[in-house]
Amino acid sequence: IPYYFKNISYKSFTSRINYYFPYLIIGIFFVKVISIPLTHFLWMLELQDILSAIFFAFIFEIFIYFNFAGLSLIIYSLAGISGFKIPLNFMQPFSSNNLIEYWRGWHRSLSFILKNLFYKPLRKYGSYVALLTVYISSGLWHGSSINFLIWGFFHALSFIITIILLEHH
C-alpha cells in the first residue's frame, strides 16, 4: 500500500468526508454484520464429512472476503478522510468472468508486491514459471506449512489452465 499513497489533503475536509464516509459505513457493515456472525460456524472445523467440508469452505470464503474487504474499506476511508488516497484492495472479485479477473480484483496490494518482487524478474524464465513462483510465494506469505504450498501450487495451476483455455477459446 505505501507504493500507492497520494496526498489529497488539498481537497477540503468536507469533500473528503462526503466521498469516503460511505466506504467507512460499508466497511463496518461488511465486518460487523456479515463477517463476524460467520465466526459462529468455526465449530464446523471439527467435522470430517465431505458435505460439511464443502459447506464450511463456502462459509469460510465469505468470511475471509467480507472480513478482509471490510477492514480494507475502513482503512481506505480513514486514509481518504485523513488526506491520503490509496487504492481499493478489492475490486468485486466474485463478479469476475474467470479466474484471471478474480485475482485482479482480490487483494490488489499483495498482488502488486508479488508481481514486482517475483513475476517481473522471473518472467525471463517463462510466464508459467513466474506465475508458479508468485502463487507459491503467496501461499508461503499466508503461512509456512505444506497446506499453503499446496494452496499456492493449486492456484498457480488453475491460473495457468485458465490462461490456456482463454487462449484457445
Question: What does the model show?
Answer:
- This protein is mainly α.
- The radius of gyration is 18 Å and the shape is globular.
- Helix 1 packs antiparallel against helix 2, helix 4 packs across helix 5 (127-142) and helix 5 packs antiparallel against helix 6.
- It is built from 6 helices and 2 strands, in the order βααβαααα.
- Helices cover 69% and strands 2% of the residues.
- The mean pLDDT is 92.
Could you say which overall geometry the principal axes of the C-alpha atoms support?
globular
Radius of gyration: 18 Å
SS element count, helices: 6
Report the average pLDDT across residues: 92
Beta strands, count:
2
Major sheet: arrangement of strands:
1-2
Instruction: State the low-pLDDT regions, or none.
Output: none
Helix/strand class: mainly alpha
Distance between the termini: 35 Å
Strand portion, in percent? under 5%
Report the biggest beta sheet as strand number plus sense, adding barrel if it closes.
2 strands, antiparallel
Give helix and strand order, one letter per element, not per position: EHHEHHHH
How much helix is in the residues? 55-70%
